[in-house]
Write a structure and sequence with these properties.
The chain has helices at about 50-55, 60-70; strands at about 1-10, 15-25, 40-50. It has about 70 residues and is an alpha+beta fold. A three-stranded antiparallel β-sheet has the order 1-2-3.
């Protein structure tokens, strides 16, 4: 079975989100409907941010142009 979980929170005035996706066996689901982390196969963790700090870390216009040029 494929699973996906997403958590969105605010940190330092930015909206941050963490997404986990992976595959599990139905036998690994515990009685309280939880899964032990080492039971998730092909785990993919995605971390995204949206705010002023994230935008400040992006490359400038000259760097973008030089990357496009070369």
């Amino acid at each position: 079975m494929k699973i996906e979980g997403k958590r969105t929170f605010q940190l330092n005035g930015e909206n941050q989100s963490i997404t986990l996706t992976g595959f599990i066996r139905p036998a690994d689901i515990q009685s309280d409907n939880s899964i032990i982390s080492y039971s998730i196969m092909d785990l993919v963790v995605t971390y995204e941010g949206d705010g002023t700090i994230t935008k400040a870390q992006e490359p400038g216009m000259i760097t973008k142009f030089l990357r496009w040029l070369f």
